Amino acid sequence: MKIYGVAILAGCYLAGQFIGEMLGSALGIGGNVGGVGFAMLLLLIANDWMKKRPSLTGDTNKGILFWSSMYIPVVIAMSATQDIKSALSGGHVAIIAGIAVTLACVLLVPAVSKIGRSKSNPHS
Amino acid sequence: MEILKQLLEKNGFVFSFFLIGLIMYLSFWLSRILTKNRIPGVAIAIILGLALAFFGGKNGIADIPVFAGMAFVGGTMLRDFSIVATASGADLGEIRRAGPAGVLSLFIGLIIAFFTGGCIAYAMGYTDARSITTIGAGACTFIVGPVTGTAIGADPEVITISIAIGVIKSIVTTIITPFVANRIGLNNPHSAMVFGGLIGTSSGVAAGLAATDVKLVPYGSFTATFYTGLGCLLCPSVFYLVTAFLMK
């Protein structure tokens, strides 16, 4: 049943957010630290568990896949609800800094990717 | 007309799905007709979304009552829920292999963003450690900025600027990612995790990767989700102390 998949996803999401909130308060900064990441790990573990149970695959997976495919529509809605006006009215400091910082970080991607790769997999 | 308006306001959530479907159809059509699919349809859809946001205010187009449902569909809850769902297509082994690079990229990303933001603040005439730190923190994400500013007691005006920087960063990331992806080698899980850690702004990373290649979304989002928390930890403490020391 598809709802099983959605329920598993919801369970992983809530448990991950809970871990993130706990970590946030343990570090004394409040908020949520890595909630989405923990939820993803839990879902990956749940996926493995599901694979061992043939009765749960198929339709169950479709419930998760549906929400995974809703990701792009959600992102489009997200961009349509950004506070773009006040971002641009933040003055030239905000615009210059925003653009410069993004470019600086983007340009570093190839270099840092290389460092990590040679460390974890010396043959590639 | 009044009846239609009321109907759409009452069913805002459902209306959003209809509207987003329409935007996506239009975008994929434009991508095919105008750019021969060179600019991905998703990228066009996201830019159209940003353009729509101009018609509203703080919550973008959702400030117009008929489109209020967009705020729910595009809100944090559904965003994070669907991001987590994308993980079902991810490979745990890839995440583990790229783990060290991911952690490294988080620290490098925060330091570079803070340093660049701080330098620009200094160049623009801010000379007190509090303002420079807050603006540098805003260059991390639009959450790190106000959290740091409030913690160290910065000027409200500076805090506003720090939020604006973070939002601009997120928007710039969204727009440029699909166009620079090939040039920076952003085409595999490993570099997607590094990308998420270096940029860190969850919404920008999520939207930018969506427009580039949906398969990369879970990897980038995985590291990006730790960025804001780590930034809130480092900016008001270590980074502030270093800035204060340098500005003496």
From the structure above, extract its key features.
A: 124 residues; mainly alpha; 2 domains; elongated; B: 248 residues; 77% helix
Question: Which helices and strands occur, and which strands form pairs?
Answer:
The complex is a heterodimer of chains A (124) and B (248).
Chain A: H1 2-26, H2 35-51, H3 59-69, H4 71-80, H5 84-88, H6 91-120
Chain B: H1 2-10, H2 12-35, H3 41-53, H4 69-73, H5 76-86, H6 92-123, H7 129-138, H8 144-152, H9 156-180, H10 189-199, H11 202-212, H12 217-247
Give a description of the structure.
The complex is a heterodimer of chains A (124) and B (248). The longest helix of chain A is centred in the C-terminal third of the chain and has 30 residues. Chain A has 6 helices and no strands. The C terminus of chain A is likely disordered. With 124 residues, chain A is mainly α. Chain A has 2 domains: 82 residues, no CATH class; 42 residues. Chain B is mainly α. Chain B folds into 2 domains: 73 residues, no CATH class; 155 residues, no CATH class. Chain B has 12 helices and no strands. In chain B, helix 3 runs antiparallel to helix 11 and helix 9 packs parallel to helix 11. The longest helix of chain B has 32 residues. Chain B is globular, with a radius of gyration of 20 Å. Chain B starts with a helix and ends with a helix. At the A-B interface, helix 1, helix 2, helix 3, helix 4 and helix 5 of A face helix 2, helix 3, helix 4, helix 5 and helix 6 of B.
